[in-house]
Structure formats: C-alpha cells, structure tokens
Amino acid sequence: MPTELPTQAMKNKEDKEKKKAKLVSDIEDVMKELQASLEQDNIIFERIRAIDKTKAVVENLVDDIQFWTKKKMFQIESERGQTVEIVARLMARFRASFGEWSDMFDQEIDDLEPLISKEEHVRCLLDRLPKRQRNQMEARYSRPLEQVQALIARTASHKIFIKKIGDVIRKNESSTSEDVSSFKHSLPSQPSSSSSTLIMPT
Predict the structure, then answer these.
(1) Does the reported pTM lie above 0.70?
(2) I need a surface site. Which of 35, 93, 151, 202 has the fewest CB within 10 A?
C-alpha cells in the first residue's frame, strides 16, 4: 500500500509548529542570558544601594537649604549674615553630593542598558506567540521581567528628584546668585540613551 503523501495543509501545519518551536527556543535562550545577567550583576544592586544612600543625603540638604532660605526671608538685614553663610556652606555640600549622585546614576544607566535590550528583545518575541502560550511564558519568566521593569521605573522617579533640585536652585537665586551660578555650571551634561529624559528643569 503506497505511503500517503503529505497535503499542503499538513506541510503548512508542520512549518508553523517548527517556527513556533524555534520562537520558544529563542525566548528561552534570551531569558537564560537575562537571568544570568541579573544573578551575576550583583554590583548593580550594590550600586543602587549606594545611589539611594547618596540621594538621601542630597534630599536632606535640599530640605535644610529650603528651611534656611525661608528663614532668611523673615530676618532683618543685620540678622542675615550668619544665615547667608549657613546657606552657602549647605550649597557647597549640595554641589558635591549631587555631583557624586549624578556620576553614580549615570553608571547605573550604563549598567541597565544591556538588561533593557534583552528585556525588549524578549517582549518582541513573546508578542509573536499565540496569546495563551505568551501568557504561559510570561508567567514562567515573570520574576526577571519584573526585576528589569522595577529598575527601569527607578529612572522615572529621578525626574521628580531633579525637578525638586531645580526648584531649590530657583528659590535661592536671589540671595546666593554667585553660588547658584557655580552650581548650575557644575551640573553634568544631559546624559545619553536611556537617561536622555532626565533633563534639568529651566
């Protein structure tokens, strides 16, 4: 009895299954790379802790500068000398701490870019799967994908932080114009790639 030749529909189905299997294999390969990067790059998370610590220092200085600037507004001329000196010292510490934070954050962005690239690649591959299978794969790899998203969300939170710094600078312009001008010139240039949205308010 002759062997039944495969129909075109059978060939199409076989090709479709092969492509789907290749797609799943590609997703698994990229996810293995992403998971390995997250597990090996403990330095990223160590740097994050250091960044957050420095950010807390800067935020405390922001609060102190705001307090003394407001106090100076209600002082008579003869009382302002000491307050001006206090604000100037705070601004000097502010410049140094902000510069340190900015350098550390730029490095965090550089470290994050490869992870974002892998995460975006996986998302593109997942979108090509049927909905049910895509949901299953996303559930399977939810933890590393959520880790990368959490890291990305940090960059957005820094927009608010930088705006707060800009507000402090503007409020101090009238009384510490020379110090403020020096601080503005010391600000880092607009970062590239993923951090391009973190622009100092005008």
Answers:
(1) no
(2) 202
